[in-house]
Write a structure and sequence with these properties.
Elements: E1 17-26, E2 30-38, E3 44-52, E4 54-61, E5 67-75, E6 80-84, E7 87-91, H1 96-108, E8 110-122, E9 131-142, E10 154-159, H2 160-169, H3 175-189, H4 195-203
Parallel strand pairs: 4-9
Antiparallel strand pairs: 1-2, 2-3, 4-7, 5-6, 5-10, 8-9
């Protein structure tokens, strides 16, 4: 992983050290491990880690008119309803982009000709080793949907700036969606995206 430029030349950080570890729970999707460890300060510590068995892959689909497609579904951990970009788990053995393309089709009924990877994240890295990759996608066309048997998915198409406003208002809290949308906003404002696309995203309200 690249080191930030401001950290170049600094003394190497002291890492955590593991003295023992074992799995305390496992199912087809996650494993929970417990560890006896030594902290960077030298203090002994007990540490639990949630280890997903899939990579998180997500895509923010952007239409030519500056709208984006979001999906809504009930989420179990918080017992809430969440509006998100299409996202899901991709087996580590699968190409991440292929997994993101599948999620876009299954959840939103869309395919895209243009894909751009924009973000790599470590989600809640104090308690889990879950990793995530996000893309922006455009040049969209409709395909058949095929949601997971456990999913009841609603689909909405809203202006990109409406998505940003709802993030500001606190009505959209999915961290992966929030980070990807704000990254897209930055890219549009800084002329990193194609000009016609950035103009549509920033002016459609």
């Amino acid at each position: 992983m690249p080191v930030p430029r401001w950290a170049e030349g600094l003394a190497a950080p002291v890492p955590w050290r593991q003295t023992s570890g074992h799995a305390v729970y496992e199912n087809p999707w996650v494993r929970v491990t417990e560890h006896q460890a030594i902290a960077p300060t030298g203090a002994p510590a007990l540490y639990g880690v949630l280890r997903p068995k899939h990579l998180a892959a997500g895509v923010l689909p952007i239409h030519a008119d500056g709208t984006v497609t979001l999906v809504g579904q009930s989420r179990f951990p918080h017992r809430n309803y969440s509006w998100e970009m299409p996202e899901g788990g991709v087996p580590f053995s699968e190409d991440p982009l292929a997994g993101a393309q599948r999620e876009l089709a299954e959840e939103a009924g869309l395919a895209a000709r243009t894909w751009r990877e924009v973000l790599r994240m470590e989600l809640s890295n104090s308690v889990t080793d879950e990793r995530a990759i996000a893309w922006l996608a455009w040049d969209l066309s409709e395909v058949d949907k095929d949601p997971d048997p456990t999913e009841v998915i609603a689909i909405v198409r809203v202006p990109f700036m409406t998505l940003i406003a709802e993030i500001d208002r606190g009505s959209i809290r999915d961290a992966f969606t929030v980070a990807t949308a704000l990254r897209a906003y930055h890219m549009a404002r800084e002329h990193i995206l194609p000009g016609w696309l950035a103009h549509a995203m920033l002016t459609r309200v």
